[in-house]
Amino acid sequence: MTVEEILWWIGGVEMPKGDSGKARQAAAIWGQIADRIESSIRTTDPMATDIWTLYHGLGIDAFKKFWTKDFAPYPHELAAYCRRIQAVCNGYADAVDKMRLVLTLLAIQTYLNILFTIAYGWVTGWMGTLAELAVIRDRAAIQAVAQRTLFQKIMIKLLEYLFDSIGYAAGQQLLQMGTFGVADLFMDYDDDAKKIIGYDPYSMKANGVQFAQAVGANFAFDAANDMTAAGLGKAGPLGRVLSSGAGRRVLGFGSRMVGSNVYTVVGNMEQGKQPSEWLPTWQQEVDKLIIHGSRMAKNPAKGPIGSGRTGP
Fold this sequence. Notes:
- This protein has helices spanning about 5-10, 20-55, 60-70, 75-135, 140-145, 150-185, 190-195, 205-235, 235-240, 245-270, 280-295.
- The chain is an all-alpha fold.
- The protein has two domains: about 20-90, ESAT-6-like (Helix Hairpins); about 100-295, no CATH class.
- α4 packs antiparallel against α6 and α6 (about 150-185) packs across α8.
- The two termini are about 25 Å apart.
- The relative contact order is 0.11.
């Protein structure tokens, strides 16, 4: 694979192999053939007419019949046939260009979503840090946290998952609508474009369904992420290694990768895909490695949310 093909692959698209430039060259050639046929008709028709106008006889009558009845339709039909092939070639070229444009847009959206997911972890990390500082400054709040029952802690954690998932899903949809909105300046979302995209980017119903599915999938991500981190953190000697120093980053990476795969499985189930299509593709796994590998870098925010939360 070339570098360009790898970049398209990471972006989740495969560009068509067709060459729109050569298709248009072929269309131009067929157009030239049609032009010459039509030109020859305009040149030879008056010459043939002069023959039976100026001369008479059985041979002339037979020639006139042949020219006007038998031969006359053929050049026009041949020119029309060339025009149809010209139109097909141009149509093919337009279809290839449109598909490449739409697929480029989808790849850009994928890369923007990768950047958004990386950045979202930092943003929520700062939010978590501010929340922690607020609690630390309030002794009553510290005491209240320590006295929470298990049920209360579970309910608070579920609410945390819900708010985090709503924020992430809303951010995704706003990013998607913004991307399509900018692209709308350069292209028209006709029926063909919508078929390639898979939905109408301006449909409130489509965006609402995607938002709800993202909330559910991210909720599953949060739960799987926390459970994996908690489980590995208590895994004997391994847990001690992963709970200190650089090990925490490895633990965060591993738990987020587990959560990310759960996110994709749940998302595919929500979309009604067959069980054979529930697992992430290799391309999606590479995207996940880029996202969560990048987030192994030191995060200036060390709140509970920023330390391991959020992202497909």
